[in-house]
Design brief:
It is a single chain. By secondary structure, this protein is mostly helical. The chain has helices at residues 3-25, 30-33, 44-62, 79-99, 102-106, 122-130, and strands spanning 108-113, 116-121. It has 6 helices and 2 strands. A hairpin with a 2-residue loop joins strand 1 and strand 2. Helix 1 packs antiparallel against helix 4. It is globular, with a radius of gyration of 16 Å.
Length: 131
């Protein structure tokens, strides 16, 4: 199996898994998604926002967009808006990551953030965000 096919399958799986999760979450009462529990993100809504913002950041970085002014504080009041955006970003990841060819996937990308400094292949970042 080629690296391109592997990453394409991986991106498809991410979109599918997020769809399965969010389809179920959409059946719950909105108040459940906002109920506080003892966890690193103390509501399902905050956990979804974290997943969403992380996917948005990594999609921008892996796509070669300027991340120097990335907006980390994007938050939706309504959990259903968070879920909708999460799925839109998941689909965009699937489309974008599947379009990279082998040479683009093996291209080194330098990440320089206060919390991480790396120089990895594009496909390694793709695997990181999906994992």
């Amino acid at each position: 199996m080629s690296l391109q096919k592997l990453i394409s399958n991986y991106a498809f799986f991410n979109q599918w898994a997020n769809r399965e999760m969010t389809d179920w979450l959409m059946t719950l009462d909105t108040e459940i998604l906002k109920t506080e529990v003892p966890a690193s993100f103390n509501t399902i809504q905050k956990t979804l926002q974290h997943i969403n913002i992380a996917q948005m950041f990594w999609l921008d970085f892996i796509s070669g967009k300027d991340i120097s002014n990335f907006k980390w504080d994007i938050a939706y009041e309504d959990p259903k808006d968070t879920i909708q955006n999460l799925m839109e970003v998941s689909l965009e990841m699937q489309t974008t990551f599947s379009a990279f060819d082998e040479s683009q996937l093996t291209e080194k990308l330098k990440l320089s953030m206060p919390w991480a400094k790396n120089n990895l292949s594009r496909y390694e970042y793709v695997m990181h965000v999906i994992n």
